[in-house]
Design brief:
The protein is an alpha+beta fold. The chain has helices at about 15-20, 20-25, 30-45, 120-125, 130-155, 200-210; strands at about 5-10, 55-60, 65-70, 80-85, 95-100, 105-110, 115-120, 160-175, 185-195, 220-225. The protein folds into two domains: about 5-85; about 95-225, Crispr-associated protein, domain 2 (Alpha-Beta Plaits).
Amino acid sequence: MTTLFLTRARLRRDAPVAALARQLVPSEPGARTLAAHRLIWALFADEPDRARDFLWREEAPGRFLALWSRPPAKLDDLFELDTKDFAPALAVGDQLGFSLRANPVVARVATKGERGKRHDLVFDALRHLPPADRAGQRLAVVAQAGRAWLIRQGAVHGFGIDGDTALDGYQRERIPRDGARDIVFGRMDKTGRLTVQDPTRFLAGLAAGFGRARAFGCGLMLIRRA
């Protein structure tokens, strides 16, 4: 398997960077996600046509985690970087705590023979409820649908979910774009415990990420020994 590394990147706090704080860390959530996307790409876009081959998430405004297989650029005037190896020694039956920020989707086929279209997991689950009941049951639906989605991910990527999972947050992200339609997606934060069933498949899943919107800070699962 490709060697992986985990980097904690923090925007510097000295005067030149602080002067750009409103541009680098906007207060509006969607604009901040877009700014963070561009900042992280500045670390890894070493070629004009480079495809995304890393995962990242925002820890706090101006603070990020990135999982990568090639080193980021040394933008010392902008970032403070702290890097360590990411090489967990895993065996079948290992129990791990996890924290995942993901954009879960489902594919639904409208007409027989057509390719399935992706839909937001939560909106897809809520459509089965009467409109008047959706607001009151939204959090329960998010928790239930999110856990079911994680179980399906585990079946593909070699892990099983142990017990209940905690819903730490769900929100709709709207990313503004000049001259194009906004990008809209659901962002779910889940924590819980899992059991490793296939270490090779699980590590490959960690490296690739889970769910969609990985370019915008989703898909990175953090793990620790339970």
